[in-house]
Each structure stands twice: as C-alpha cells, then as structure tokens.
Design goal:
The complex is a heterodimer of chains A (225) and B (415). By secondary structure, chain A is an alpha/beta fold. Chain A has one domain: 3-Layer(aba) Sandwich (Rossmann fold), CATH 3.40.50. Helix content of chain A is 34%, strand content 28%. Chain A has a six-stranded mixed beta sheet with strand order 6-7-8-3-9-10, with helices on both faces. In chain A, strands 2-1-4-5 form a four-stranded antiparallel beta sheet, covered by helices on one side. The longest helix of chain A is centred in the C-terminal third of the chain and has 16 residues. Chain A is globular, with a radius of gyration of 17 Å. Chain A starts with a strand and ends in a 5-residue tail after the last strand. In chain B, strands 2-3-7-4-6-5 form a six-stranded mixed β-barrel. In chain B, helix 1 crosses helix 2, helix 2 runs antiparallel to helix 13 and helix 9 runs parallel beside helix 13. Chain B starts with a helix and ends with a helix. The chains are: A alpha/beta (225), B alpha+beta (415). At the A-B interface, helix 2, helix 3 and helix 4 of A face helix 1, helix 10 and helix 14 of B. Bound molecules: adenosine-5'-triphosphate and magnesium ion. Magnesium ion binds next to helix 1 of chain A.
C-alpha cells in the first residue's frame, strides 16, 4: 500500500531550514492498522501529510499502491486525496457554515458524484457513525465527539483505501475518544488501511503495529508487526 | 448543492463584509450608470445633431462664384466669376444628374415691421425648390413660395419660426401683412421648427424668405448670391461636382480645376466628418465610464482578496478533501461575478428609470433640444454587458488564483 524510500522533508522559513523528516524508509501493507508515536516536533504530522499526498517530499521516493507520487500533477494529487485517502484531524476541520450532512457531501462534490446518489451516500455514512438524526446541525451545535464522527463520515464517504488520522482523540474526553478508536478498529476490519497518530499508549496498543519517530527518523516499528 | 453552498458562502461574506461589499456594489452601480448614461446621452446627442445637420438640407451642394486664380485661355487671374438666374436652368440642362436646383439672393439689415414691432433681419429671395432642398417646411395652415408666386412676382413672405415669434408673438401670422423696407408683404407660411447645424448667411429661423423674382424687382440685383443644387444620387456627388465645374468653366471661361473660381460646398462631406467626430465623442465618453467601472472592479478584487485570506483554512480543508484548482477558483470567480452582475443590473435599472423620466419631461429649452433625449441602444447594452463581464472576470481571476495557490499543509497547521 505505502512504500517510502529515503524520504526527506525540509521546510525553509526565510533563512532557517528545518529538516522535519531525515530519511524515512517505511512500508505499510494493505489492511494494516498502524499507530505513529513520537514526541512533539518529531515529524509525525509531516509524515502523514506526505502519505496522504497533501504535500510532496523534498527528496526520496514514494509509491502509493504502486504509483510513483512525485511525478503526479497537482490535479492528479487532488484526485488521489479525493478517491484514495480519507483525512481525520485533531481539530476536526469541518466547514463551520455547512451542516453535518453538507460537510459529508464535500468530498463527493469534488469527486463529481451526481446529486441524488450523493445525498443517498452522505446520509448512509452519517448513519454509519450514528449521526443520522443530526444531519441538519451545524458543527457549532455538535459535541467534540460528534464533530469528529462527522469528520470520519466525511473521510470515509468516498470509500478510500487509506484512512489517515492525526491525533483524532486529542481534543476529546476519554469516553468519546474510545468511541472514535472503536470506529477506527472497525474500519481496519472492513479492509481499510488505517494510520493513526497518537500520544495515547492505550490507543496505540490496540493497533497492529506502532511506528516510533524521533527527530525526523523512525526509531522503532519498521519491521512488519 | 454546490451552487447553493457557494451562494451561502456569498451571503456569509455579505454579512461579514457588509460595509465593504455595499460600497463596492455602489461603485459598480455608479460605474454602470455613468457608462450607460454617458453612452445614452451621447447617442441622443448624436441623433439630435444628426437631425440638426439635416436642418440645412440633405445631400445638397451650395455653389458660389469666386475669383479666378489660374490664367485661362489668355485671360489673367483675379477675374470675378458671378452667376445669374439663367444659370439655374443652364445647369439643369447640361447636367442631367441634378435633381433640383435654385438660386438665392440675399440682403441683410432689412427692417421688417409688423404693427409696432420692427426688427432688422436678413431677407432671402429664393426658388420654390428651396422648400425640399433646404428644408423650409411650412407649419400647418401655411405654405412655401410656389411657381405662381415666382411668375407673378407676388409680394408674399415665408417667415423663419423665430422671426415669426419676434414679430407676432403668439398671434397667428399667416394672412397678415408685414412691411419690408416700406413694401407690404403678405405672410403665406411659417417654417416648421427645426434645428440647424450647418449654415451660411445665418440660421434659417431668423430669415424672411420671398420669391427670387420679387426680390430682384425690389432691389434690382443682377447677380445671384449663390446657387444650390441636389444630385439625384448622393453617391455620385463627386462626379456631379466635376461636371458642374466643367460646364460652368466652359461658360464663364475658367479652368475647371480652379478651386478659387468656383466654390462648391458639399453638405454630405460635412455629414461624414461630423459623424466621425460624434463616434469619437461616444468612444471618449465610453472610456470615461469604463474607467469608473475599472476602479469599481479594483474594489471587487480587493474584497475577494480579503475573502481569500479569511478562508485560507477552509480552502486547505477543501484541498485535503480533493478539491482541484478549478473547484477553488470557481467559487471566487462566481462570487466576484455575482457582485459585478448584481451591481450592473441595478445600474442598468436606474438608467432605464432615468431615461424614462427624461423622456416624460417636456423640455422646451434650446439646450434640451440640442442635447436630445438619452437613448439606450442595443450597442450600448452589449458594450456595457461586455465591459461588466470582463471586469467581473478580471476582478475575480487574480484573487481566485491566489486562493488556488494556498498551501494546504500551511493552512491546516494552525488553529
Ligand atoms: N510548514 C512548516 N514550516 C516550517 N517548519 C515546519 C512546518 N511544518 C512543520 N515544521 C517543523 O517540522 C518539524 C516537524 O513538525 P510536525 O508538525 O511534523 O511535528 P509533529 O510530530 O506532528 O508534532 P506534534 O506532535 O506537536 O503535532 C517541527 O520542528 C516543525 O516546527
Ligand atoms: Mg502534529
């Protein structure tokens, strides 16, 4: 599924250059449920953005399902994010002016799904995260756990092979955090590849494999789990 | 739903940036009004001036005798060339392309009296053909000089409408007697009001016109002031002019190429240049209006830049969800088009109202006559829509390109 070779990522802000990733070799197979851990600033989010094709590496090679990512155009990358990847963020990143239902519709709109099919599918996925009765609520009218479930419905609605979550429970209380992790576990069983960034050992323990990052390098967990 | 979302986004912007959007909208409305009204007044002015151009007569040539400037057949230069009555028939016979012709005598400073009113004005002695050629149309109940008036040298007079007002005020003039230098004349008609741009010997509305034969009897002129003719086909005007020069040159022994011996003033040529000037004038007005709109367009662009900045995070989210460049750009393009079109529609609406009101006000004043009524022609509508569309696109395209170049990673990094 994911095959990274000697991936480096350098951010240059003005005169200062920050090497966020310093030579990552990483293989994640189909259907794996993986946790990424590491101290703050170790490059976890950077890694996730690269995996999800939201950003491109400074050097190295990245194959996603056998496809070489560096050679793709911005529009092709957008297509990949739309069809193959589902993102879940710590701060949910929902569109504040749109309802839960409309938020779930967004990836379908960019995927060019016809409106009747789109509505049916969005409703189906809202139901799957147990929020069918909250379809018309704006994010501000939902709890943190509910918002994150909407975000997960949105990440899944295009049925991507790969689901990426950056500290999805970071802003949630333990109870709703647990519900979210249950959802991810479920996804793993349904055939999605799931990568979760987390600081929570309890969560990490439930995955198949824990990848540990420090200073932009993988220090543990790169053998197959 | 996508359309709906965009509309909702627009409404949300409207609330957030109410003041700014209102101001910009007003600028677009004002720009549209100024461009449309300038063009509409230009069009009205063009039409009224065109009518005024025809006040002198349509497709006519005025001919004066001058002084030879080229020696011809042994005669030196500086010889005066003057025409007589017989030349009218001579011309018509020798140049069959001429449809109508007539001679004109002229005397100014004639005292014209009706009861206690006396004015000093110009008196013209002309042929009946003047009615058509020189647009001397009578008002209801009157008539112009006819063949019998000519034949019997009747003492009848046809008055310019302003001269009539000065002599008679509101009183009816037709049938009354007025005195021209001690000679009584009967008024047979008053000229229909007309606007007149081109003129020689002063405007027609201030003249008293009498039969050429009568004129000669009273003042004993031997030579005519000038001859006016009208070619059958306006397109042939140049050839006819050449032929006239040749024929008259042969009769009066001057070189047909001698521009000083024979003066030919052609109204058609003047009309062409005049139309060019008017079109230039309209373009000038259009450019001024266009500039105003352009400045308004900068306002729209500014609003869109602010919107892009405020929505960076949202743009990042959409990009993470797989939005392509075009998806991001369309939203901003549409928004700026909505603002521009809304302003344009409002502006045009106001213009239509102004034009309607203007048309309803009866304006008798001279300046209003000359200014004419503003007209919104199809060309004006098309031009304005085009300019608005272009400005809407331009003011949207740059902000939307900025939106499409947002770095999603950067925009999602911070709360
Ligand atoms: N856009 C950027 N510009 C400059 N430096 C950046 C940028 N993004 C990340 N960095 C730097 O790269 C390094 C890795 O950042 P990253 O966000 O991947 O860390 P992280 O492991 O996700 O940390 P956290 O647990 O706090 O989220 C940090 O030193 C960070 O300051
Ligand atoms: Mg992070």
């Amino acid at each position: 599924m994911i095959d990274m070779r000697k991936i480096r990522k350098v951010y240059s802000t003005g005169r200062i250059e920050v090497e966020a990733l310093r030579g990552i070799d990483l293989i994640i197979g189909e259907n794996e449920f993986v946790a990424v851990m590491g101290p703050s600033g170790s490059g976890k989010s950077t890694l996730m953005n690269l995996i999800g094709c939201l950003d491109t590496p400074s050097s190295g090679e990245y194959f996603l399902e056998g496809q070489k990512v560096e050679s793709l155009s911005p529009n092709e990358l957008a297509e990949i994010r739309n069809k193959k990847v589902g993102f879940v963020f710590q701060n949910f990143n929902l569109l504040p002016y749109a309802t839960a239902f409309e938020n779930v519709e967004v990836p379908l709109i960019f995927g060019g799904v016809a409106s009747r099919k789109r509505r049916k599918r969005a409703m189906e996925f809202l139901d799957r995260v147990g929020l069918g009765d909250r379809a018309d609520h704006k994010p501000a009218e939902l709890s943190g756990g509910e918002m994150q479930r909407v975000a997960i419905a949105r990440a899944l609605v295009n049925q991507p092979r790969l689901v990426l979550a950056d500290e999805p429970t970071g802003n949630l209380d333990t109870g709703s955090g647990k519900e979210i992790i249950n959802l991810f576990e479920e996804l793993g069983k349904q055939g999605h590849t799931v990568v979760v960034i987390t600081h929570d050992h309890g969560i990490a323990e439930r995955t198949h494999r824990i990848i540990k990052l420090r200073d932009g390098m993988i220090v543990d967990g790169n053998g197959s789990g | 739903m996508k359309g709906l979302l965009i509309f909702r986004l627009f409404l949300r912007d409207l609330k957030k940036q109410r003041k700014r959007i209102t101001l910009t909208l007003m600028a677009i409305v004002w720009g549209t009004i100024s461009i449309v009204m300038l063009l509409a007044f230009g069009e009205g002015l063009k039409r009224s001036l065109n009518k005024a151009q025809h006040g002198l007569g349509k497709d006519i040539v005025v001919m004066w005798g001058g002084q030879t400037s080229i020696p011809f057949q042994g005669m030196g230069k500086g010889r005066r060339i003057r025409f007589v009555d017989e030349d009218v028939e001579f011309l018509k016979k020798k140049v069959p392309e001429i449809e109508a012709a007539g001679a004109e005598y002229n005397r100014w400073g004639v005292s014209i009296t009706y009861k206690k009113n006396t004015v000093s004005e110009r008196v013209n002695g002309v042929y009946p053909s003047y009615e058509e050629m020189r647009a001397h149309y009578p008002q209801r109940g009157g008539r112009f000089i006819n063949r019998l008036d000519m034949e019997y040298k009747r003492r009848v007079v046809f008055l310019g409408h302003k001269l009539k007002d000065r002599l008679f005020g509101n009183e009816d003039a037709v049938g009354k007697t007025i005195i021209l230098n001690d000679v009584p004349f009967t008024v047979i008609g008053v000229m229909t009001e007309k606007m007149q741009m081109g003129m020689y010997n002063g405007p027609d509305w201030d003249k008293a016109t009498i039969p050429a034969t009568t004129f000669k009897t009273i003042w004993g002129y031997k030579y005519v002031q000038n001859i006016v003719y009208q070619p059958r086909d306006a397109a042939q005007i140049e050839e006819v002019k050449k032929k006239v020069s040749k024929v008259m040159g042969a009769k009066y022994k001057f070189d047909p190429e001698d521009k000083e011996a024979l003066w030919l003033w052609d109204v058609i040529e003047g009309q062409k240049t005049f139309n060019k000037v008017l079109v230039g004038f309209q373009i000038f007005l259009g450019v001024i209006g266009g500039m105003t709109l352009l400045i308004a367009g900068v306002g729209v662009a500014n609003i869109m830049y602010v919107a892009v900045k405020e929505r960076t995070r949202e743009i990042g989210i959409k990009m993470a969800m797989g939005a392509k460049r075009l998806h991001i750009m369309t939203q901003f393009l549409l928004e700026s088009l909505i603002i521009t079109i809304l302003g344009g529609v409002l502006g045009v609406f106001f213009c239509v109202v102004i034009v309607k009101i203007w048309a309803a006000i009866p304006l008798e004043a001279d300046w209003a006559q000359w200014l004419g009524k503003p007209v919104i022609s199809l060309e004006i509508a098309v031009t304005t829509s085009l300019i608005l569309g272009i400005i809407g696109m331009l003011s949207g395209i740059f902000p939307s390109r900025k939106a499409a170049s947002v770095d999603p990673v950067e925009s999602l990094r911070y709360e």
